[in-house]
Amino acid sequence: MNTIKDFKNMTTGGMMRRNKFILFTVYCLLLTAFLWGCGGGSGSPGSNGTENTGVTVDATITPLYLGGNTYSVDTFQVVCDPGPPPVAEVFTDHNATLTMTARLINPNTTFQAGTLYVEKYTVEFRRSSDSIGAPPIQSDTRYKTIVIPAPAGTGVTTVEDTVILVDLIRKDQYTADVTSGQYNSGLAYLNNYTALYTFEGKNEYGEKFSFKAQTDFQIGNFDYCD
Fold first, then answer.
1. CB 54 within 8 A of CB 116
2. C-beta separation of 200 from 40 below 8 A
């Protein structure tokens, strides 16, 4: 009887050890899968989205109007001189200068980075904390090719181009909204915004990238008469 009892105990103990081993193996596999899925990778939060090309791009935006740098966006066209003949204030799109600086993430690499081609960009508008009651401004997406030559070694490539800030359509809409009585503004219908830019494209090897930039600006009734 003791022999049969000992055999049962040995069999039960062996099964328990096998079950524990199986559970441990399954746990390790699940843990590995979880850790693999948590990796950041290109485009993860805090990334500028160009790492997979081997190049990092820093960008700045400087508002530009009538040949000069200015953060004051005019949405009201006035008559500068009653004449005759009357002379109206120059009134057109408010643009911005985009300055891009590209450098290799690893300047010691033997890998030849490819030329970057921006294909489109989107401008989104965020009301400042002191202009929460201001009219919303519709986002603007533009398709434009901007070429950024690949840097080499410790060198830096700098490229400038002109992009839109607030076009005439959005200027006219702002004027209609701010004078409708539905929104708030300061003197001369002034409000403050931040323009958030996202640029997207591919390098010459077909690898996608993106980078961001932003600028603050004020919009309302400004005098641009000579």
1. no
2. no
**What is the distance in angstroms between the CA of the first residue and the CA of the last residue of the chain?**
114
Beta strands at 68-69 and 55-65: parallel, antiparallel or unpaired? antiparallel
Nearest-10 Cα torsion for 179, 185, 188, 193: -110
CA nearest neighbour of 193 among 206, 207, 183, 202? 183
Instruction: Please give the Cα distance from 101 to 57 (Å, whole number).
Output: 6
pLDDT tens profile 182-224:
999 999 999 999 999 999 999 999 999 999 999 999 999 999 9
pLDDT score for 31: 38
Residue 53 neighbours by CB under 8 Å, 6+ apart: 113, 114, 116, 203, 205, 207, 209
The residue assigned the tokens 């996608």 is 208
CA distance 43 to 50: 8
Element (H, E) at 79: strand 79-81
Among 57, 91, 86, 59, smallest CA distance to 74 is for: 91
**Rounded to whole angstroms, what are the CA distances from 60 to 55, 107, 138, 148, 199?**
17, 23, 22, 15, 12
User: Which residues of the chain, if any, have pLDDT below 50?
Assistant: 1-47
Tens digit of pLDDT for each residue in 112-133?
A: 889 999 999 999 999 999 999 9
Q: Which DSSP helix (H) or strand (E) runs through 10?
A: helix 2-37
Q: What is the pLDDT of residue 111?
A: 79
